[in-house]
Amino acid sequence: MQTTLAPSSLFQQHEAAILKAVSAIHDRRFYAHFPEAPSKNIYGENAATDGIQAFQQQLANPFVLRQDHDHLADTDEQSPYTQKALGITYPAFKDPRSYTVRSLKAMNSWKTLDPASRAGILMESLERFRGRFFEMAHATMHTTGQAFVMSFQASGPHAADRALEAIALGYHELTRFPQDNFEWVKPMGKFEIKMEKHYRQLPLGVSLCIGCSTFPVWNSLPGMYASLITGNPVLVKPHPTAIYPLAILVQELQQVLEEQGQDPHLVQLVVDRLAEPVAAHLAQSAEVKIIDFTGGNTFGDYLESLPGKVVFTEKAGVNSVIIDSVADIIPVAQNIAFSVSMYSGQMCTCPQDIFIPRSGIRTEAGHMPYEEVVNALVDAIRNIATNPQMGANVLGAIQSEATLKRLDLAREHGHRVLLEPATVTHPDFPDARFSGHLVLEVPAEDREMIGREWFGPIVLMVPVADTAHAAKLASELAASKGAISCLAYATDADTMDMIESEMADAAVSVSFNFTGMFWVNQNAGFSDFHVSGGNPAGNGSLTDPAFLVRRFVRVGSRVFRG
Amino acid sequence: MQTTLAPSSLFQQHEAAILKAVSAIHDRRFYAHFPEAPSKNIYGENAATDGIQAFQQQLANPFVLRQDHDHLADTDEQSPYTQKALGITYPAFKDPRSYTVRSLKAMNSWKTLDPASRAGILMESLERFRGRFFEMAHATMHTTGQAFVMSFQASGPHAADRALEAIALGYHELTRFPQDNFEWVKPMGKFEIKMEKHYRQLPLGVSLCIGCSTFPVWNSLPGMYASLITGNPVLVKPHPTAIYPLAILVQELQQVLEEQGQDPHLVQLVVDRLAEPVAAHLAQSAEVKIIDFTGGNTFGDYLESLPGKVVFTEKAGVNSVIIDSVADIIPVAQNIAFSVSMYSGQMCTCPQDIFIPRSGIRTEAGHMPYEEVVNALVDAIRNIATNPQMGANVLGAIQSEATLKRLDLAREHGHRVLLEPATVTHPDFPDARFSGHLVLEVPAEDREMIGREWFGPIVLMVPVADTAHAAKLASELAASKGAISCLAYATDADTMDMIESEMADAAVSVSFNFTGMFWVNQNAGFSDFHVSGGNPAGNGSLTDPAFLVRRFVRVGSRVFRG
C-alpha cells in the first residue's frame, strides 16, 4: 500500500536514514543502507519469485510510464543469455524537444521545493525501488549479461546506496549555509548598516543522463539523484540495449512525484535505437545544462568539449596489476583471477595489464620465477572458467557481439597466447553468449597494445624489468590513457609507498594485497570515491562534493533595512 | 621582525583566525578579519607615510622577487593620475616554459604538506600583506585609477578577507573527510573483511591566474589562494597595466614560502606586454590545469572552451536598476548616483541600464512622473561629479584610454543625451584622466544598445511600460549577456517577489531599496557569493564550495588486512 504523504512528512519518515548517510559519508567507514544479500530473511519469502514473475510479465509488453508520448518505441534490447529480443516497448516522442519542454515545465515547481522535501521524495523512491530489487536483477541480467548475484547487487542495493549518497550529500550541501532570511549588520563606527538576506539555490536546467550497456543502473543513479536533489529535471537516456533496468527507476520516481503533487515529467525516460541515436542531439540542445555520461572515449571527449555545460564523464581506461612480492601466490592468483573473471572483464574497474618482474618475485617460500607466477595466474583464470559450479555464474554473459570480436583483434597482434578462451556453459542458458579469457603475453615495448582498453575477457601479462618499471609504466598509461583502479602486491612499506606515489601522479587509487572475498573491481558506497577525475578515465568522481555542488548556483537577495 | 616558524606552528598561530573564518563562511552574517578603515588607530601612526614612501621608492626601480629570471622586463604600467609610466621592471623569462617547469618542481613539496601547514603559511602571507596595505593603496591607485579609499579597501582588507575565505573554505573542504589511515570493516555474516584506507588529496597542476586592469587584487586573490590551499602552484599573470599590486602579494608569498623551506617558485609573477600577450600561450600549455580569469568575453569564452582545464571566469555583463516605487526619491537617487559614479563605472557590479516606468512611479508623497525621476537621477549623478570635495575622490581616474573613447561610441547611437560628462579635476593630479558621466535615454527597443556592456562612466535611462516589463527585460539581458548585480526599488512584497523571481531565472542576485552608505556594487566577504555562475557574466562564484573543490582530486589507498 502506498499512501500519499505531504513532502515534509516523507522527509520526517526518512530523515534518520538521510542524516545517517550524511554522517557515513563523512566517516567513510563501512556503511550500507540497503543490504546486499539476495536473501529471503531480508527481502521476504516471496521476493525472489515475485521478482522473476514481474520480469516475465514485462517481457514482450509495453512498459507503462507516467509520461506523455506520441508512440511506443521498439528497442535493441536482447538477452545475452537467450540471444532473443526482450520485446518491451517504451513510451517515446519523435521530436526530442517534446522532452525538454516538459522537463522545464516540471522544474518550475520542483525547484521551489526545499531540500528536505526533495530529499524525502527521492528517498521514498529508493525505498520503493527496494521492493523491486529481484525484478531489477533479472532485468539487468537479461540486458547486460551480468550473472544473477552481480545483477542483484550492482543494480539493486549497491546502486541504491550510491543514489542515497547523492541525496544525502546534496541535502548536506544545500543546507550547509543559512536557509532562511537572516540579518546582516555591519558596524560603521557611529552607526550600522542593516540588511535582510537570503539565498535561492537554483538548478542549472535540464540534466541528461546517458547510461551504458554494462552497468546501466550503478553508473547512472548517482548522477540522476545528484541532479534531482539539486533541483534539476532529468532525462534518462539509457543505452539502447539496456533500457529496462533504468525504466524501473523512472517508473518509481514518476509514481512518487505524482503522488506528491509534482509533475512526473521531472524524470523522463528517453529511448533511442542503435541505428538512430539521440544523445548528441539532446546534449547540444540549449536547455540541457548538465550531462552525466558513462561510455566510450570518443563520445565522452565530445561531450566534455561542449561549451557552457557541466559534464561528468566516466570513460575507458587501462587498469594495471603490479606484482612485486607476496606471502603466498595461490590466494593472490585466485583473487586476481576472480577480479578479471567477474562479468568477463566488462567492468571499468577490472584489471587488464598484469606487470610481473622478468626476474620473478619474492614470496614467503622464497624466490618465484616469472614463468611460475604467470602459470599460477593462468591456472587460476582457467580454473574459474572451467569450474562447472562457478564458471558461468562468475563470468556472466558477453553483453555485446563486439566484445567477442575483440578477442580476435587482440590475437591478431601476434603475441604469445598463454590461454585460449575456455568454452563456458550454463545448463539453463544453452544459447548464451559466453567466453572464457584470452590471456596474452605482451612485451612492455608494445605500448600501443598495453595502452589500449581491451574491454572484455582479455588479460595481458607484461614482463617488466622490476617493480619500479612496472609502477612507472602503469602510471604513464593511466596518465595518458586513463585508469580507475590499480591492484598491487608488495610486502614491504617502502615499495607500497613507491607504488602509491607513482600511481598518485596519475590520480589512480591503489588497492594493496587483496586476497579473499573482496576485489579491486569493487567500490564501496559511503567509503570509496569512484573515479578520481584526475586522468582520462573520467572527469568527475562518484560521489564527492564537486559531483553535487556543480549542479546548482546560489543567487542572493539583500533587502536594505537601514 | 620575521621569525622562521615550523609550518605547524604557523598554523597554531593562525588557527583561531582560520576557524573563525570557517565559521563566518557558514554563518554568512557580517564578518571581517581585516579592518577596512585606513585609520592610524588600526594600522599604526606611520603606516600611511611608510606606505607612500615605499611606493615612491619602488617607482622607476626593479621589483625584487625570489624567482629565477633571464631579464628584467619593462611594462605598460602608467598612472591614470599622472599619465606617466611607473617605470618599474620585473624579473621575467623569455620562454614561458621556464615558469611551468619551476611550478611543477615547487609543487612536489607543496602537495605533500598537510592542509593545516599550507593554511598556516598562506595565512601568514596575508598577515604580512596587512603591513603593506598603504603601499598597496598607492600601487592600485596608480595602475587602476581608483581613488585612494577604494584602492585601500578593495585591494587591501577586502581582498585579504576574500583570500582568507579561500584559505578557510579550502582548509574546511580538505579536512572534512578522514585525514589519516582508518579501518574499514565489512561484516560478511560469519566473517568480516578488513581494510586500512586513506586518501591523498592531490592538486591538478599549474594554476594560471589572469588578472584584470581595474581590480587586479580583489578579483585575483580568491583564485590564487584557492589554488594554493588545495596544493597547486600558481602563475600570477597580471594585466600588463596593473602588475605592481599583484607583485606585492607574490613578494610576500615567496618570502614566507622560502622561510618555511618551500620553493618560492610555487608562486611566480609572469609579466607580459600589451603588444606581446602571453596568457593564451600559457593557458594552452599541457601543464596548466586551472585557469582563473577576469576580463573580456572573447578571451573568457576562449578559455572556457579549452578542453581538460578547470576554468573560472568573470566576464562582462549588463547590470540593471529597476525602479518601481520608493519612499523618497532623493536618497534613492543619491544611492544610485553613487553606485554608478564610484570608480567611474569601471566595476563589474556597477549598474548601467536604469529601467523606469514611462507612467512614473509611486512615492510616499504621491505619484512621480517619469521625467521627474530621470531628473532626480541625472541631478544626483551631476552633483557628485561637480562637487569639488567629492568628485574626483568618488569617480577616480579612467584606467584606459579605450574607456574614454567608449563615450563617443555611445553618443554615436544618436539617443537623447540627458547629461554630458562634467569636467572633473583634482588639485594634486592636474594631468589625470578624469571624466564625468554621459547619461543617455535609450528606448527599450534598442536591445543592441541596452544589451551591450558600456564599461565606464556611461548610464542608460530606459523607459519601460511597467515594472513587469522592466524585470522581464533585465532578466532577458542578464540571461543572454550576463549580469552580476541588480538593484531594485519596490515598496510592496509582491513586486519584490516578482522581481526576485524574474532575476532568479537569469541567476542574478537582487539588492532591494538601497539607500545610505551601502551600494549594490559592494559584495561583502563571508556573506555575499560574488557572481552566481549561472549566466554569461561568469561561470563560477567567489567563494563558494565549487570554487575550492574543483581544484583537487582524491585518490584512495586500500590495504587488505584480512
Structural overview:
Two copies of one chain form a homodimer. Chain A has 20 helices and 19 strands. By secondary structure, chain A is of the alpha/beta class. The longest helix of chain A is centred in the first third of the chain and has 21 residues. The N terminus of chain A is likely disordered. Strand 18 of chain A pairs parallel with strand 19 of chain B.
Task: Furnish the topology, listing elements before pairings.
2 copies of one chain form a homodimer.
Chain A: H1 7-27, H2 40-43, H3 47-58, E1 71-73, E2 90-92, H4 97-110, H5 115-130, H6 133-144, H7 148-155, H8 157-175, E3 182-188, E4 191-203, E5 206-210, H9 221-229, E6 234-237, H10 244-259, E7 267-269, H11 279-284, E8 288-294, H12 297-304, E9 310-314, E10 320-323, H13 329-341, E11 353-357, E12 361-363, E13 366-368, H14 370-386, H15 391-395, H16 401-411, E14 416-419, E15 438-441, H17 447-450, E16 458-464, H18 467-481, E17 485-489, H19 493-505, E18 509-512, H20 545-549, E19 552-560
Parallel strand pairs in A: 5-6, 5-8, 6-7, 8-9, 10-11, 10-17, 11-16, 15-16, 17-18
Antiparallel strand pairs in A: 1-2, 3-4, 4-19, 12-13, 14-15
